[in-house]
Design goal:
With 155 residues, this protein is of the alpha+beta class. 33% of the residues lie in helices and 25% in strands. The chain contains six helices and five strands. It has a five-stranded mixed sheet with strand order 1-2-3-4-5, with helices on both faces. The chain is globular and about 45 Å long.
Length: 155
C-alpha cells in the first residue's frame, strides 16, 4: 500500500467513499461533476501545513482509502501538539481485509513523527463496529464529546 498526500484529482474518489455509508449519504453530495464546495475545501486543506489529507493506493495505484489528519497546537501539555484523525474511509469492496488497521498504524506513526502527544478521534455513536475497532487499536473513551451543529451558516 502507498500512502500519499491527496491531489485535486483524488477528490471525486474521496467524496464517493465519504458518501458510501448510512451516515455519509445523508451528509455528502456526491455527483459528477462535484459541487465546487469540495474543491474549495481541498484548496484550504492543502494550503494548511497542519492538515494532511491522505489517500491510500493499492499496488495498481488505485485509491482504496483515505483519512485526514489535523495537527492542533495547544498551550496545554506544555505547548503540546494534538493530532486529530477524521474521515477514515476504505472503498466498500476492500473492507474487512485489515486495511483499516494498517491505515491507523500509519496515522499513529505520522502523529508521532509530528511530535503529537496524543492522537484523538470522534466517531458517531451509531457506529458500534467502529467503536469496537478503535478500542481494539488501543483508543480509550476518556472524554465525553459534544457538538453544536449549525444549520444555517450564512449568518
Amino acid at each position: 500500500m502507498i500512502f500519499r498526500k491527496a491531489k485535486i484529482s483524488d477528490i471525486s474518489t474521496i467524496v464517493s467513499m465519504l458518501a458510501d455509508d448510512e451516515l455519509g449519504k445523508t451528509r455528502e453530495n456526491f455527483q459528477e461533476p462535484l459541487p465546487s464546495c469540495y474543491r474549495e475545501a481541498f484548496k484550504n486543506i492543502n494550503s494548511d501545513s497542519n492538515q494532511e489529507l491522505i489517500v491510500v493506493e493499492d499496488d495498481n495505484h488505485t485509491v482504496i482509502g483515505s483519512l485526514q489528519l489535523t495537527f492542533i497546537q495547544y498551550l496545554t501539555y506544555q505547548g503540546g501538539i494534538r493530532a486529530q484523525i477524521e474521515a477514515v474511509r476504505i472503498r466498500k469492496d476492500k473492507r474487512g481485509m485489515g486495511l483499516g488497521r494498517t491505515m491507523f498504524k500509519w496515522a499513529i506513526n505520522r502523529a508521532k513523527e509530528r511530535r503529537a502527544h496524543v492522537l484523538q478521534l470522534t466517531t458517531d455513536k451509531k457506529r458500534p463496529g467502529a467503536i469496537k475497532f478503535y478500542r481494539d487499536l488501543g483508543f480509550i473513551q476518556s472524554h465525553e464529546g459534544m457538538k453544536l451543529h449549525f444549520t444555517d451558516t450564512s449568518d
